[in-house]
Amino acid sequence: MDDYPPTARTKVRRLPKRGSYDKLAVHAILDEGFVCHVGFAVDGQPYVIPTVYARAEATLYIHGSAVSRTLRTLTRGVPVCITVTLLDGLVLARSAFHHSLNYRSVVMIGTARLVDDRNEKMTALARITNHVVPARWEEARMPSELELRQSSVLALPLEEVSAKIRRGPPVDDEDDYALPIWAGVVPVETRLGSPIDDGRVLLGVAAIDLTRFRRRAPSGE
Amino acid sequence: MDDYPPTARTKVRRLPKRGSYDKLAVHAILDEGFVCHVGFAVDGQPYVIPTVYARAEATLYIHGSAVSRTLRTLTRGVPVCITVTLLDGLVLARSAFHHSLNYRSVVMIGTARLVDDRNEKMTALARITNHVVPARWEEARMPSELELRQSSVLALPLEEVSAKIRRGPPVDDEDDYALPIWAGVVPVETRLGSPIDDGRVLLGVAAIDLTRFRRRAPSGE
To answer: For residue B21, is pLDDT > 50?
Structure first.
């Protein structure tokens, strides 16, 4: 697959070797995350709201109910920045200055529009549901027309996109390697725990099988 | 402890029962997170950048190098929104509509300033380092004057702050409890893995002890 062409707004300037515009790298990060942070501005004041999302080819759909109150007056679309961050490790160097985090993040910039079309909205909600729990849409009770109207979905075309990745051990100044200080990486792992039913599951209904989830990589360094 | 008074910009309007302005609740979330997402706007275009942070009483300090390129032209401070989100669980309802996430988030709004004062910058960097790895500042090699100049710290006074928390099982429509569909919570756990040294640690230097970290709660529901 090819790259998202870097623009003045997405080019990674600080520590550019951490930047990537490769679509495979970008999509792998998006497909692993559960939550994105949506940034938008109202009268110059930025807001950053967490929400669920899914990618469908070159479009990012987000569940927009948390932001739609603010955005629904905007019929022509609204400039947004949507960021997904996966934390992989704490990087402990010998010097305070070289401490860091191992992470993979994607920053997406553009103009989001409210999804009005009923079919597109259903498809987007299916994608978002199945992004969090694969194949869940096919077993859950479908939305009623009222629920569909109460749901709010925003779409962002993936055009200005960049990934930033740091991995591996700390990098200390050469002189500092002589210091008797432990240095390395403490992995941060995101795992799914044992399902807890809600106490009203009908007899004979099997608990959700964790193997159906996308593997939550014990990511380490 | 008392509350952050809700303002027009921080009042939780959608699902208000999930909102909290209690300082203890807010600070507990801030003290558990590793990464915040900083939102700021340039010429009306929002940007959302992940970075490390620490709270010092009623001030949030963030490591600003990733955003300072854009912000350093602004000497009078810049409107920001800084959000910290902890994901605790996937909430599976019987209806697609009532699927949700269990999470704890804090949204902080205000005007951030660049920290110029050398002593305040040192103190803030110590707080940020020790927020990620408790007591690390006291054992690491201190920043040189050059490293200090190369570091960039932003300070946000905690004034307009709100927390939003969802916990517990899904809430289905009463009719849907008769459906033979599993419903409940799949906990999402954030854990620290075994430390991986960088291969150049001096003989006799003990590996970092994970018990010194703030407990990463197996948070579940």
So the answer is: yes
pLDDT band at A6 (very low <50, low <70, confident <90, very high): confident
CA dist B29 → A33, A118, B83, B86, B173 (Å): 20, 38, 11, 7, 31
B52 neighbourhood in chain A, CB within 8 Å: 101
**CATH number of the domain within which B109 lies:** 2.30.110.10
Would A163 be classed as within a structural domain? yes
> Is residue A185 one of the residues assigned to a domain?
yes
Closest CA to B190 of B80, B104, B74, B67: B104
Q: Give the number of domains in chain B.
A: 1
Residues of B in contact with A97 (CB under 8 A): 143-144, 147, 150-151
Identify the residue whose tokens are 């660049």: B114
| B139 → closest Cβ in A101, A181, A195 | A181
Of B81, B84, B87, B88, the C-alpha closest to B67 is B81
C-alpha closest to that of A66 among A181, A154, A137: A154
Among left, alpha and beta (phi > 0; psi -120 to 50; other), residue A97 is: alpha
Q: Is B85 on the interface with A (CB under 8 A)?
A: yes
Cβ-based contacts of B9 with chain A (< 8 Å): 45
| ipTM metric | 0.93
Residue A61's domain comprises 16-212
Instruction: For residue A119, count CB atoms less than 10 angstroms from its CB and return exposed for 0-12, middle for 13-18, buried for 19 or more.
Output: exposed
- Assigned domain for A46 exists: yes
A2 domain-assigned = no
Predicted TM-score (pTM) of the model is 0.93
What are phi and psi for residue A51, nearest 5 degrees?
-160, 170
pLDDT of residue B13: 73
Amino acid of residue B197: D
